[in-house]
Design brief:
By secondary structure, the chain is α+β, with helices and mostly antiparallel strands. It has helices at about 1-15, 40-55, 65-70, 85-95, 125-130, 140-155, and strands at about 30-35, 60-65, 80-85, 105-115, 115-120. Helix content is about 45%, strand content about 20%. It is globular, with a radius of gyration of 17 Å. It starts with a helix and ends with a helix. The relative contact order is 0.19.
């Protein structure tokens, strides 16, 4: 039993190590990666859409939460959500664990936080852990991680 606990702790530590490759400011809790954008919310969104479509993925929806708030006479900072996907990769993940469909298609949030514009998204590792996908996702997990990181960095000008 003690040996099993030790291996579990070692495995958990090894899973966390790749996170140290990202700048500390890029990490957030609950499986989110966040980074600051050099651009306005609108321009960051435009750059994200161009990056996603440029790689052959489909932008399925763009949600303007600020505009929606105005329809009910409320104000909030500029906040946009871009929903996009790649059925080839997403289907592979859903075959591993159907519950991952609740988190697909992928999303990136762009919002004003005071004087700063931020971009956030769920990490591939979070999805694998949350839905207990395990090794089944290995063939696509790294592709998803690289794609999301690349899209966010292109959008933010990082």
């Amino acid at each position: 039993m003690h040996l099993k606990t030790t291996f579990s702790k070692m495995r958990a530590a090894l899973l966390v190590l790749p996170a140290f490759a990202l700048p500390a400011a890029a990490l957030a809790g609950n499986g989110l990666t966040m980074l600051e954008s050099q651009y306005s919310v609108a321009e960051t969104e435009e750059r994200l859409v161009e990056a996603v479509e440029g790689k052959g993925l489909t932008v399925m929806a763009q949600v303007d939460h600020q505009a929606n708030a105005k329809t009910v006479d409320m104000e909030m900072p500029a906040t946009r959500l871009v929903i996009f996907g790649n059925p080839k990769l997403g289907t592979q993940l859903m075959k591993c664990a159907p519950t991952v469909a609740i988190d697909l298609p992928m999303k990136m949030l762009i919002w004003e936080d005071g004087e700063t514009v931020k971009v956030a998204y769920n990490t591939a590792e979070y999805l694998v852990e949350r839905h207990e996908i395990g090794d089944c996702a290995a063939p696509v997990q790294e592709k998803v991680r690289q794609a999301l990181d690349g899209f966010a960095r292109m959008a933010a000008g990082d």
